[in-house]
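Quick start: what a row looks like.
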Amino acid sequence: MTVEYRLDAGVLPRRLADVLRPELASLATEIVDEIRAKIPAYARPLDGPYGKSIRAGVQHATSLFIEQIANPDTSAQKCYEVHHKLGQNEMREGRSLDDLQAAYRVGARVSWRRMMRVGKRNGLSSTVMSQLADAVFAYMDKLASVALDGYLEAKATSAGALETWRRRLLGMILQTPPAPTAAIGELAQLIGWTVPDKASPVAVQALPGTGHNQRKPTLDADVLADLDGIEPRLLVPGEVTDGRLARIKAALPQCRISVGPSVRLDALPQALRWARKALTLAQHGIISDGLVIRCEQHLSTVLVHSDDRLLATLRDRLLAPLSGLTVKQRERMLETLRAWLDTQASVPDMAAQLGVHPQTVRYRMRQLELSLGDLLHDPRQRFELELVLRATPARPAAKRRPAEVGVTLPAPRPRP
């Protein structure tokens, strides 16, 4: 914890330290007694480790204040560590934040009350006393702030709160527009999560009939998770290795998961969108990887389906000449087109891929030439046609008979 606070040596005369130093021991006792008397939560006996931490906090505070008057370069690190830990202990002891802040206010009042008596007894000027008052209350405010940080840190890292903050961090990383890097770093530090250079989003989808009421999954400690939302998701630092993927799948046996590509943090919202799109495509049978999808292997498919309405418009325009065919005939023509593109128009290879006689391939291609004409030979339209065919699921391959040569198709419609 890096914190700095220095009294202004040009404001407070250094000889004031010699005047105040004899008051240290009794002042610390008076502050502790007053806190116990004024705040019911602190009325318990101060025996044991808890009482020692309270007394140590007060003693470090009063001692540091006086030593910084004598030497403004005196380090505050040890005192701040004590008060930071004191704030943590107060949260773990079950005291409220109001009680903690009230204790520092009481400490400031008691300290100032004592210093007014000392000032009067030693004939300190009103100017010095005014400056001393400002210094006392500013110093106690700083210590209260340090203790507050410790209190909030302990609260954030308690069992229930830790999960809440981890989900909050995940939401900050995946929100659009992205949260400030500094805000992500501060929250990550608070919960003890190391911010990686790159990370991989994982989209999660419960299988039909399983619902979300599963046992709490056991995931690796560095995996951020939000499985209770409308769109469950994980965030894995770095690449998702095969071993990591196996552990995630074991933790989520009733889910389909889609692993997005590993990208920088500012690109994670888009990568998660691609992973979720891959889940949707798998649900519709367009991606057939089973229950574990590596989105990176299907980026072209995700790209083609990034605008389904545009894709449908392109499909309708390109394949309009085949609209007069029956469903079965149209499927046969489409699978022939796919084979034509896959084999670079090699008739023997097309025949082997389709499981038909080469003469059948030639017959079908003549029909396609008549129906589609220049579309098959224009590079731009041929590219568009391949996009459409890649985005249109092929029907499952059936057992074909070799005697498909004599299939009769209706005459193609005249081209306008």
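That is the whole record. The mean pLDDT is 84. The beta strands are 198-206, 224-226, 233-237, 255-259, 263-264, 292-294.
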